[in-house]
Amino acid sequence: EFGVMGGLNFPNLSIESKDASQITIETGSGYHFGAMARINLVLFFVQPELLYTNCTTPYSFKLDGQTQQSEYNLQRIDLPVPVGFKLGPVGLFAGPVASFNISSPDDIFNDSYKTTTFGYTLGANAKFLGFLVEGRFEGPFSDITEEAEFGGVTIPVDSRQPMWTLSVGYFF
Fold first, then answer.
1. 92 near 84, Cβ under 8 Å?
2. How many angstroms separate the CA atoms of 100 and 11, rounded?
3. 105, 113 in Cβ contact below 8 A?
4. Which residue in 76, 104, 150, 161 has the most C-beta neighbors within 10 A?
5. Sign of dihedral through CA atoms 130, 136, 140, 146?
6. What is this structure's pTM?
7. What DSSP designation does 112 have?
8. Which pLDDT value is given to residue 161?
């Protein structure tokens, strides 16, 4: 089966640094859309997807009395491959996700963001008459950025962007 899907993202950005005195992160949001396929096996399914994902999270960064407020805006192409177990119309799944970042998240992270990251996804979905409704959690295995340049000073950071997603889709 082949189909399309789209939905909303709710990223939980975390930025950690021993050098920054305060990092404040607000609630993020975003969206995703793309194509999916489903290979049905007796009680199992494999559902590879190709998704464009956009996530924006406002933050403020304080170092040596200086504060910068900005948005961590990440655009990427995601390739999740969930493998699931079917219980009638409901499915439970987990699998790997490869993400290809197509934009720098913010100017202060420009030189250190990784263009490819890997993670995992797990969630549940329901399929009725070709329609799919799905909720999932997506977590990273590693950080997206390793350093930030702030006020002329480069400091080490660990930034990760796990997120919850809600999606709807349709199989043709």
1. yes
2. 17
3. yes
4. 161
5. positive
6. 0.88
7. T
8. 84
Kindly report, residue by residue over 36-92, the tens digit of the pLDDT: 999 999 899 999 999 999 999 888 877 777 787 888 888 999 999 999 999 999 999
Element (H, E) at 157: strand 153-160
Closest CA to 68 of 95, 29, 108, 98: 108
CB 136 within 8 A of CB 164: yes
**Structure-block tokens of residue 87:** 């219980």
Phi, psi of 48 (to 5 degrees): -70, 145
User: Measured on CA atoms in the order 122, 96, 159, 54, is the torsion positive or negative?
Assistant: negative
Strands (E), 12-152: 14-16, 22-25, 29-37, 39-40, 44-46, 49-63, 66-80, 83-87, 90-101, 116-128, 131-140, 145-150
Query: In 10 A of CB 21, how many CB atoms?
Result: 12
Tokens of 12: 């939980």
pLDDT at residue 146, as a whole number = 78
Q: Which residues pair with 14 in a beta bridge?
A: 160
Average per-residue pLDDT for the chain = 88
Which one-letter amino acid corresponds to residue 22? Q
> How many C-beta atoms surround the C-beta of residue 158 within 10 A?
15
Report phi then psi at 108, rounded to 5: -70, -15
